[in-house]
Amino acid sequence: LRLDPAAKPDVFKRDPAHLPTVALPDPERDAGPGLWATVAARRSVRHYRHEPLELSELSQILWASGGITHSSPGLSFRAAPSAGALYPIETYVVANRISGVEAGVHHYDPAGHRLLLVRSGGCGRELAVAALGQEICESAGAVLAWTALAERTEWKYGDRAHRYVYMDAGHVGGNFYLAAEALGLGACGIGAFYDDEVNGILGVDGARETVVYMGAVGRKR
Ligand SMILES: Cc1cc2nc3c(=O)[nH]c(=O)nc-3n(C[C@H](O)[C@H](O)[C@H](O)COP(=O)(O)O)c2cc1C
User: Do residues 92 and 86 lie in contact, with contact meaning Cβ atoms separated by under 8 Å?
Assistant: First the structure.
């Protein structure tokens, strides 16, 4: 296998510099409940209280699912494993009710551990319609939407990348579920949605970058 390093796609989606940003607090790296207890307790939760999520909670979930856990020069490793360390999954936060975060669609920048506002204004209702009427898109404090840029993985794996991208998304989603449970929050994976509608809400083109999975998170009722 010959790889052209000059053709390696950027593993970060670079946002325009003018977008409003929200700095996320540093994630907790060692405290927290034990892994076994968290695995044992985790369930999909679809009923949420109305109270907002805290920014620290969102920060922890983003870091544990899509964040950077180890950096070395020219290469950073993330919380969830990824075929070839090519990280084709991008994370968006559809913010419904999060303290200190404007309602709207934010893109998560793992390198800066921050959010960039790509669309202002609550769109939980619109997302619920795009997800076949699933109310959790509106009642959750936030819905994370994961898109894939398959080109990153294709650079190394060609057609095989199309399997790997979904495997990668599953790892991110698994960490998301466990992080939410570890924080005492309720989460639910969402695979049922109209791709085009969700892509429109996120502002991604649906060709080069397309939604693959979502996850709702809120305070358990
Ligand atoms: C890929 C995937 C897609 C899913 N899509 C939905 C969905 O659209 N709506 C929903 O309410 N639950 C969805 N779920 C949650 C499953 O229904 C749930 O994981 C399953 O019933 C097992 O229950 P548990 O998660 O509590 O263990 C999805 C889960 C996965 C892994």
Answer: no
